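Weekly sync, protein design subgroup
Attendees: M.S., D.O., the rotation student, P.L. (late)

Item 1: inverse folding check
M.S. brought a backbone from last month's batch and wanted to see whether the design step gives back something sensible before we order anything. D.O. pointed out we never logged the input encoding, so this time it goes straight into the notes. Structure tokens as presented (299 positions):
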């Protein structure tokens, strides 16, 4: 009887270890700073994690198919720079420019997937190269200078709220639902899992693995563009380092949320816990007064 109870406890801990860590972390930060669990701070945590969460949905799909995309942070950066330059400097209309920026990152996603297949390069190397290309283009687009005074409609998207729910969180929720539906309810989702589990077996069963993997990268690029638009609105500026370490944070959130780095395993819903942990960790460290260098090391 005692052995059964012990096994049950061990299995429970294994299955819920991430939630347990989140609860312990929240208790610790609340003890150190009693204002940590206020409604305003919870909303702030969700708002801060939304852009990373949008990125993490696309990256999760790429990880499940057996790939990786290190260029998503740079895609966020170039989205903001192109949006800022065209709308603020060149006075282009806002929403057609937004669509153009999202189309741009979608094409980058296609190029990532196609180049990996055509050259047979490891995804890590191919997307690392793409990251550097995009970052260089982002610097060239405006001479390395930031762009300020982003149009009001984009600021509203990044800073506004519906009732008490921040707009970035609403966008993230929509992206989560889309990602969940694609992966759990469609033929494409089943094929992504199949290719990620065993690409050769999937190919022999008649699945066009090139098409499936490329579509995964296209979706990732699409979501990176949306994240870049939201990020630009939230910052009210387009910065050449806006993407910064976002790809690391998104990757960490995916892994924490149970997405396998080896492909073929994971649930989109798990990303929520991963993103909340990363965002709560950042907020908690600020609340207890840790400097930025310590925060970076802990992350």
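Designed sequence read out in the meeting:
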């Amino acid at each position: 009887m005692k052995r059964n109870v012990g096994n049950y406890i061990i299995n429970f801990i294994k299955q819920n270890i991430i939630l347990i860590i989140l609860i312990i972390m929240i208790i610790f930060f609340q003890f150190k700073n009693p204002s940590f669990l206020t409604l305003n701070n919870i909303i702030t945590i969700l708002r801060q994690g939304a852009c990373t969460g949008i990125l993490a949905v696309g990256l999760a799909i790429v990880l499940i198919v057996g790939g990786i995309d290190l260029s998503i942070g740079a895609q966020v950066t170039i989205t903001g720079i192109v949006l800022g330059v065209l709308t603020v400097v060149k006075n282009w209309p806002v929403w057609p420019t937004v669509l153009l920026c999202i189309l741009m990152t979608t094409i980058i996603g296609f190029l990532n997937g196609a180049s990996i297949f055509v050259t047979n390069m490891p995804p890590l190397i191919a997307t690392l190269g793409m990251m550097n290309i995009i970052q260089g283009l982002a610097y060239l687009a405006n001479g390395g200078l930031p762009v300020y005074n982003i149009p009001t409609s984009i600021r509203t998207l990044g800073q506004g709220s519906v009732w008490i729910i921040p707009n970035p969180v609403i966008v993230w929720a929509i992206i989560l639902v889309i990602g969940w539906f694609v992966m759990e309810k469609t033929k494409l989702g089943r094929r992504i899992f199949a290719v990620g589990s065993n690409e050769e077996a999937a190919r022999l069963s008649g699945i066009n693995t090139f098409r499936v993997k490329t579509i995964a990268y296209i979706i990732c690029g699409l979501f990176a563009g949306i994240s870049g638009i939201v990020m630009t609105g939230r910052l009210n500026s387009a910065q050449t380092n806006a993407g910064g370490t976002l790809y690391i944070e998104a990757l960490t959130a995916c892994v924490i949320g149970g997405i396998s780095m080896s492909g073929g395993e994971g649930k989109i819903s798990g990303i929520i816990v991963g993103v909340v942990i990363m965002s709560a960790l950042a907020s908690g460290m600020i609340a207890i007064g840790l400097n930025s260098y310590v925060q970076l090391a802990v992350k």
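Discussion: The longest strand covers residues 147-148. The chain has a mean pLDDT of 89.
Action: P.L. to compare against the previous round before Friday.
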